[in-house]
Amino acid sequence: MRTIRYADPQGTIHYALAHPDGSFERLLGDPFTSTGLRGMGWPGTALSGEPAAIARLLAPIEPRALFGIGLNYRRHAAETGAALPDHPVLFMKSPGAVQDPGGPIRLPAALASQQVDYEAELAVVIGRPCRNVPPQEALEYVLGYTCANDVSARDWQKLQGGGQWCRGKTFDTFAPLGPCLVGADAIPNPNALALRTLINGTVVQDGHTSDMIFSVPTLISFLSGSTTLLPGTVILTGTPEGVGMAATPPRWLQPGDTVTVEIEAIGALTNPVELESAAPLAWRD
Ligand code: ZN
Fold first, then answer.
1. Are 116 and 153 in contact (CB under 8 A)?
2. What is the Å distance from ligand 1's center to 98 Cα?
3. Residue stretches of the chain with pLDDT short of 70
4. Separation of CA 72 and ligand 1 centre (Å)
5. What distance in angstroms lies between residue 55's CA and the mean position of ligand 1's atoms?
6. Residue 186 C-alpha to ligand 1 middle, in angstroms?
7. Burial grade of 72 (CB within 10 A; 0-12, 13-18, 19 or more)
8. Whole-angstrom Cα distance, residue 72 to residue 31?
9. What pTM did the predictor assign?
10. Which pLDDT value is given to residue 53?
11. CATH fold for the domain made of 65-275
12. Where are the domains of the chain?
């Protein structure tokens, strides 16, 4: 099962189901609410019988919470010089940082950054409340998967972030998601997927989710410990080697670049890069 979220020509937002013939059928309801009609095995949705009038593709989900996992690929940890973590490295991004497929990644100008980087990541979408779940049962709580780019301003992440990664990872447009949500039924093993990043058509990351230090079931179990993961929670599961900060010289995103994150069995998420149109912000009073 594969769904998209889109705006119709009037600007109204809907979800749609992708049929095998390539057509899209509008869904009634929202897969992340519990009050809508039930159908197709997704909570809160049913088929409308009408084709989707897609004027603009949107991120396939509006996350209720957006967790990120750092240093979760062995070769990526090595390229950053970090030791392999003993526990998952957890941070959060704001749901407000989500960007649509095709929407621009804006390099911050108000809080200016010179070091904006890309990170291809498998995004896991939780479908029902999940708490204290063992790894063996964790995938039962997954609604589906999509591609994510965990865009990161390394200067704000490392030197100007107060010791936390959040500032550098949660600027507007720093969480592109899409192009579609692929149901968990179609991806029985999320740790068996190739993923890569292309900048202007050149492959810069070429990894595989089997290289994760903490597997997807392990991450869900860990995150659910004493903690309810609500439906609509999105988990960014870490990035493989090949980030721009590890290149020699470093390869920072520039206005005019085009970044594509591709994941096997899901698709390609492409975003252009532009500079935020804003004057430097005098935030110290
Ligand atoms: Zn990341």
1. yes
2. 14
3. 32-44
4. 8
5. 30
6. 24
7. buried
8. 29
9. 0.95
10. 97
11. Fumarylacetoacetate hydrolase; domain 2 (3.90.850)
12. 2-58, 65-275
